[in-house]
Write a structure and sequence with these properties.
This protein is mainly β and about 140 residues long. It contains no helices and twelve strands. It has strands spanning about 10, 20-25, 35-40, 50-55, 60-70, 70, 75-80, 90-95, 100-105, 105-115, 125-130, 130-135.
């Protein structure tokens, strides 16, 4: 299967019970500090509000946040590193009634409380140092 272009953007409509599944592989060893970022935007432009920001500093940590009216909220960090150096992964972000639940390769790793109504989401963007195989919204 051909890799998807990165940065990857997709118009979406999400609601409670829906999920986003991302299959990808880091493009470089963790020793070179690769990153991956997934943004759930409330508009169709990159400068729109971000309801959910998920940034992986491979080999280090995961940072989650939101951006409203150009201002970032309080960061939530996860110290666990569910990603393995050089290995493909499946990241699943599930929309629950009060939070996003994040799992990697089928194992729950973290959660982030809603700061925006998920119904406001219009676009997802996946970017930085990953080779993207698929992005499925269900």
């Amino acid at each position: 299967m051909a890799a998807l272009q990165v940065p990857y953007t997709k118009s979406v409509s999400l609601s409670v019970g829906s999920s986003v599944k991302i299959k990808a592989t880091p493009t470089m060893p963790f020793s070179m500090s690769p990153e991956m970022q997934v943004d759930f935007h409330t508009g169709n432009e990159e400068d729109s509000d971000i309801a959910f920001y998920f940034r992986v500093y491979f080999g280090n940590n995961v940072v989650m946040n939101s951006r409203q009216c150009g201002k970032w909220g309080k960061e939530v960090k996860s110290t666990g590193m569910p990603f393995e150096d050089g290995q493909p992964f499946e990241l699943c972000i599930s929309v629950q009634s009060n939070e996003y639940q994040i799992s990697v390769n089928g194992s729950q790793c973290c959660a982030f409380p809603h700061r925006f109504d998920p119904a406001l989401l219009k676009m997802i963007q996946v970017w930085r140092d990953v080779s993207l195989t698929s992005v499925i919204v269900a």
